[in-house]
Amino acid sequence: MRHLASALTSLLLFACAPRAQHEAPRNDDATSLRLDGLVHPTSDGDSLDAEAGDAEPLLADADSPSDAAAPPIHDLDRDGLDDDYEASVARAYLPYRSVHPQDGCALGAILYRLRPHPDAPTTRLHMIVDSIFQSDCGAGGHSGDDEVFGMTIDPSLPAPDGILAIRAISHQDTFCQAITDCGPCNQPQLAACAHAMRDGKPFPVVFYSKGKHGSYVDESTCNGACFFTNWCTLSDAPSEPPMLNVGEPDAPLVRDLTAAGIITSTAGWTDQSLFGFDPWGPSKFGNGGGVLSLDFVDDAFTTPACAR
Ligand SMILES: [Ca+2]
Ligand SMILES: [Ca+2]
Ligand SMILES: [Ca+2]
User: How far is the CA of 233 from the centre of ligand 1 (A)?
Assistant: First the structure.
């Protein structure tokens, strides 16, 4: 009975805990991030809750050798990665996001999906970074904006060295679409990224065009793109708005961006049509943005696993 009460208490704590990881805790020792020992794909997703209920003793005895191989105890999105680890990786390996200094509608947030890389699940991570903005105020502007890049991470290397490949697609599926790739990936060989200092180290840069937020890893491809409507430049500092892990398609971590604390009046958002938005729902984001739930599963952003 005591065990049952303990399990129920643990479940209650999980249910009441904030589901979002806003501004993941800084990991100043990125070398401590390792995939080994952290990937334990859940063989039976239905048993996750039971595992979570039994999790507390594993935390308490984390140093004991017998617990070293224990399954993750905080994997609500059921991808085999501890969700706190996901937040640490996302924060540590986030590229330098260069939002144009004269951007007139820079208010936004970062939604991300991090999981084992589908082509190298034990050695690489893949992250989709969906940058949302309240509006696009460039040519043909609109309410709601979503701009996506994908990246391959080798977590055995500290950031930024572990960033092996980045692919940005601006104005996807339009005649203005531009795909740019960069990174130290060897197979295939990619162009070198532009770099700028973040956390005291040279990080690869993802440029967002002024007002339109078209994303490019190559500034020269951006400038003048789409009939001279896109212009990029390196910002003085990286843009790092609130970050939120959306989870996985089969196990979302969030269904309401306002309840999750992302799209709120407090954060400066004013467009009520975006409040309460479900990032895993079928609707478009605003009257001109894309369907976020499709962004998170779009294979066009699956960067190569980058064998070395
Ligand atoms: Ca997870
Ligand atoms: Ca995940
Ligand atoms: Ca846009």
Answer: 35
